[in-house]
Design goal:
The protein is an alpha/beta fold. The protein has 2 domains: about 170 residues, Rossmann fold, CATH 3.40.50.300; about 60 residues, no CATH class. Helices cover about 30% and strands about 25% of the residues. It is built from 9 helices and 13 strands. Helix 3 packs parallel to helix 5. The protein starts with a strand and ends with a strand.
Length: about 270
């Protein structure tokens, strides 16, 4: 069980002489409050979708969950363990994938997965078997021995997912895991997420694709301007109308027009599809 309680994160703004102050309501007293009050929970065997416009605070929230950033205030509990008080213990239970997650370009796919497995204390036959399992499941056997710097975007994303889950974490934190993938690649990633859910993992993932929320999630958290504006069952959100219109309503935006399959407003992209 992952419990996020009133999480916040602020960053010091440059001096006014170095950069003009903007009009974002999160700027206050020389600080930018990227995350002001985010709360949600995700149980074992559950997938929680994290929605919100670009810049809403989703990635910052996920980076705090991964311990890459220390929160300014609030609490994160993972199976009852306080992440701030005991980050090392909590970190061993995580698998974290974001846009900044990297591979070592001079190493092959297999070598990258092995390196991260060893970093998590895995060795020998157990690690070799796990690598073979992931190469097969993620359809990477044909390029397992190619260097990472020669991979296509789709190949690279699969390799990143493999290195993220090599140690079979209890909690997966995935920041827009299907971004840049074609339909087949995205479907493979979503199917893999379902398998991890069935195996009992708690999965928290951010996305702009509403059809992914509908396909995978029972619960959703919507973040806007650094605050949770909705957290609960997807069904409860959909009772307010279509998922797209209900999402837009939480952001204070007008409903979509009939026939729309996508809408861009301010900095947010809402995509509806199958």
């Amino acid at each position: 069980m992952v419990e996020v309680k009133s999480l916040s994160k602020r960053f010091k703004l440059p001096k006014r002489s170095e950069a003009p102050r903007g009009t974002d309501v999160r700027e206050d007293g020389g600080w930018f409050h990227a995350v002001r009050n985010v709360s949600f929970q995700c149980g074992a065997g559950e997938i929680l979708g994290l929605l919100g416009p670009n810049g809403a605070g989703k990635t910052t929230s996920l980076r705090m969950l991964s311990t890459a950033l220390a929160p300014s205030s609030g609490q994160v509990l993972v199976d009852g363990i306080d992440l701030v008080a005991d980050p090392e213990t909590a970190r061993r239970r995580f698998g974290f994938l974001s846009g900044s997650t990297g591979l070592y370009g001079r190493l092959t796919v297999r070598e990258n997965i092995r390196y991260f497995g060893e970093a998590h204390g895995m060795h020998g036959r157990a690690l070799a078997a796990r690598i073979d399992e992931l190469l097969t499941r993620l359809d990477m056997a044909s390029y397992a021995d190619k260097r990472a710097d020669s991979l296509s975007a789709g190949m690279r994303q699969r390799a990143l997912i493999a290195r993220t889950v090599v140690h079979s974490p209890n909690v997966l934190i995935l920041d827009e895991p299907t971004t840049g993938l074609d339909i087949l690649g995205a479907r493979l990633v979503l199917d893999f997420m379902r398998e991890q859910q069935m195996a009992g993992a708690a999965i928290i993932f951010s996305t702009h694709q509403l059809h992914e929320i509908e396909a995978l999630c029972r619960r959703v958290c919507i973040v806007n301007l650094g605050e949770t504006v909705f957290e609960g069952p997807v069904d409860a959100l959909q009772r307010q109308g279509s998922l797209a219109d209900a999402y837009l309503a939480q952001l204070g935006e007008a409903p979509t027009q009939a026939g729309d399959v996508g809408r861009t407003q301010s900095s947010a992209t809402v995509t509806v599809g199958a």
